Amino acid sequence: KMSERKVLNRYFPPDFDPKKLEESKKLLKKSKPNSRGGGYRKKKLLNIRMLYPFTIRCNGCEVYHYVGTKFNSKVEKVQSESYLGIPIWRFYGRCTQCGNEIVFKTDPKSGDYILESGAKQNFNMNNKEVVKKKSEDDFESKVINSVLESRSMEELEILKNLNKRLMNREATELNALKHILDENEIIPEDQFITPTDNKCNEIISDRERQLITNSVRNCIDSYEENPKFQKKLGSCVVNSDGSKRLNAAVKVKEKNSKDLFFNYYDTESE
């Protein structure tokens, strides 16, 4: 119906062949051999709308066609050339003033186009400067990245060493103290604490108790040699609540200094 805004039904004639329509639109189809004589038929070129990829000057009328100017062109696939399996295409255009044919093709290696005939490409000084500057920037960025990577690796090694020290801190400190306090005794290697031992906590508690007892005994031995300490031991009083204090007015039965000190330490620890 003519009044319909969107036509949903289309008429297809009985002799319509969709294969012929697809073949006419194919651009990569092979050229057919000529029936009249030897050789192949000349392939039909595909008409497309194209833009000039660079500024050119026509050789016929010397008119400039600037980059980005639209024009009607024909394109074909170059049979004898390719780059890493990428096909190369050739474009044919005409000058808008004199009708001179301008031909250029793709360059997949450099990601650009190559002018073949019909015009002269405008030379741009900025291109070399941009390429040179880009190469310098790439080199500087590579150097900077390598330096940053080396610094990050050094920092990572430092952090790893610190983590190892912190993980083994208690064991190393305890072994060092044990070595200092027991200089005259030789400790077998199997008694040293290792981070892989399952009974590490039990061994640490035993070592702490042993260190405390050794330090207390050393202190008692040094105090017993002092005469002032012996006088104070004679005035030790036991309160009703079980605590001990010093009182010069009341005298109690003198006891061994070591037993007195260890009994006080045991009551406090309980």
From TrEMBL:
Pfam families: Saf4_Yju2. This is Yju2p / cwf16-like Zn finger. One of its GO terms (biological process) is mRNA splicing, via spliceosome. It comes from Cryptosporidium parvum (strain Iowa II). InterPro entries: Saf4/Yju2. One of its GO terms (cellular component) is U2-type catalytic step 1 spliceosome.
